[in-house]
Amino acid sequence: MSGLNESLQQLQERARREGWASIADEVGDLLGRHPDHAGLLVLRANAANAADDLDSLIDALRRLQRLRSDDRFRIMLADACNRRGARAHAASRYAEALGDFEQAYALVPGHTHAWFNAGLAHTALGHFAEAAPCFVQHLELRPDDHLAAFWLAASHGNDALDAWFDHHAGQSTDPATAAEQLARHGLNGAAAHALTRCNATHALDAADRALVQLHRRGAWAAVDLAAPAVLTACRAADRSTLRAELVAALRLPAVHPHRDSMLEHRQRYGAELATLSRRWNADYVRRAAPRLEDLAHSNFLLAYQGLHDRTLQADYGRVLDTAVQACWPRLAARPERSSSRRIGLLSSCWRSCTVGMYFSGWIDWLVAAGHEVVLYQLGPQRDAWTDHCAGRASRFRLLDGALCAIAETIRDDDLALLVYPELGMDARLLPLAALRLARHQAVAWGHPVSSGLTAMDDFISCGPMEPPDGATHYTEHLVALPGLGVDYRVPQLPDAADPSQLGLVADRPRVLLPQSLFKLHPDGDAVLSAIAKNRPDVQFVLFEPEFPEWRGAFEDRLDAAFARAGLDASKHLHWLPLGSRTRYLQVNRACDVMLDPLYWSGGNTALDAIRTGLPIVACPGSTLRSRQSSAMLDALGLGDALVAADGDAQAELVASLLADRSRRAALSNRMLEGQAHLFDARPARAAFLDWVERAIEA
């Protein structure tokens, strides 16, 4: 024991000299041999706190609390739980956040922040009755907190909300700012009601954001109620109404109740787009005196309807083209040729996400080939992967602030070529992409649909994933790269975890459905019910969506589809919270089959499944976005075994695989053995660099 005490002293001294990170690994090794040593646990807690590793901090504090009944550890543990909950809440993992907040106030009943945050989490989950007591408890501890009083009023309906606004008029949050907060937390009716109180003196940027949030949630009644008030307030303030017009007109639900509803919304979208195109002539747009931000509205969800979108995308592109040419003619004109061969890569996704991991290898390809590469991250978000990418580029710019100023900055960099890895996920990129910020411009398949913009010259895609008529799907010139088209960053494979540790039900066949709910087309419901009919014990593993409204709409739709087959959908759906990449890969390893959705194939999710050896059952459609997984399986020599001709065949194949463990194991081995060929980026690199040279000289 004396040797251990000496080690503790040495570790403490090193931490003082070199920082807590320097001792983290050694402390972990010692704890493996002495798991209940309080001194080591204190060191681990300090190291975890310095590294902002809340999971490790909470684990260490819990163990310390069990070892020593000390109020200090109890209070520190409550604070750490509250911090972790706040982080989960910011990432829209509301159920996970609520669990942490509940732990925090259970440990410290007077923890005001935990009570308040629990109220917000309940609100975001739609648990309005449960939210009110949390705010009441907070107000008992902090009776002067007007913000908590606001949330309590909002949870009691519009009359209480009106009374709050009247009592606090001119003293605190105005209706537009309040509406943004209400919409963010799912109080859609209250948000719309607050927006009806807006006038020209209020924060109309917040009103715009609230309207966008209501649109994203699919709260159409709230949009109908709020949009006229926002338009009136904008006109009274002599402010552009273009953004509000876009939001009010171009509705695209994330989750459709049935196919007919999807087609009705698509028809309405096309009609409203035609109306906007007629009204938004050059004179109308100039009179509106818009900011570039007023054109930042994404039609991202159009691509998930399983149909061909070139015409509608081109119509939308013409609306943006008219606006930018009328108001920013210099930025909309192609720059004059110069001697520059500088290349720019622009996104808000140079982060630890699908786009960031997929396309960051292009930075290395370009720099190694001798090109000067300017990496643009549209802020404010950045993370460790952003810094990693920045260190590999020739220059890095974090762009934040007014879009017009950002456009000027990029234009002044005198780029020969500007590449957007995706267009659609961040609405701010669309008006930038409608401008001519470089002599040659291209978009890649991070969002695999044509941009429709005349300022975009090329669409960079994966050749094996394109259908024979793929070139006709784009307003841009199609550049089809071989293989995956990227130098995919293969994740380290984590150890397998027991299903119960992952929140899964043991001893049931598990089919992974990792896609966001807007990727699950209504036509796919019959595939799920057919699988459940064949395998009554099947469990479909899904992940909690960004908004609880989406889950509710999806479950309602699936309930109806399963009822038609004489089944109960609730017996087959198993929802997991979003977690770390490591945990996600462990979930893959714990499942038996991954089902690729109809009309929208997995990209990164398919690669993760292949990496873990999880068989994917795919059904290719007629567009790039429906053929990604099937092309990967073909490259692995597994097309005949895992690619189905239609939804019925897909359901039969999944059911047969669930019944045959040895067959699944054989397919898994073939997946793992063929990965080296699939991830070989050399052909794609050569083709990509060849295209770059031609684009620079164009």
Question: How would you characterize this protein structure?
Answer:
The chain is an alpha/beta fold. The chain has 4 domains: 2-114 and 136-141, Tetratricopeptide repeat domain (Serine Threonine Protein Phosphatase 5, Tetratricopeptide repeat, Alpha Horseshoe); 156-327, no CATH class; 335-489, Rossmann fold; 499-678, Glycogen Phosphorylase B (Rossmann fold). Helix content is 55%, strand content 8%. It is built from 34 helices and 12 strands. It has a 7-stranded parallel beta sheet with strand order 3-2-1-4-5-6-7. The protein has a 5-stranded parallel beta sheet with strand order 10-9-8-11-12, sandwiched between helices. Helix 13 (204-217) packs parallel to helix 15. The longest helix is centred in the middle third of the chain and has 21 residues, at 259-279. The model has no long low-confidence stretch (mean pLDDT 90).
CATH-derived topology of the largest domain? Rossmann fold
Find the CATH superfamily of the largest domain. Answer: Glycogen Phosphorylase B
Q: Uncertain segments of ≥5 residues (pLDDT<50)?
A: none
Q: What is the CATH architecture term of the largest domain?
A: 3-Layer(aba) Sandwich
How many whole angstroms does the radius of gyration measure?
27 Å
Major sheet attributes: 7 strands, parallel
Structural class: alpha/beta
Shape: globular
Distance between the termini: 73 Å
How many discrete domains? Answer: 4
Q: Mean pLDDT score, rounded?
A: 90
Major β-sheet strand ordering: 3-2-1-4-5-6-7
Q: How many strands? A: 12
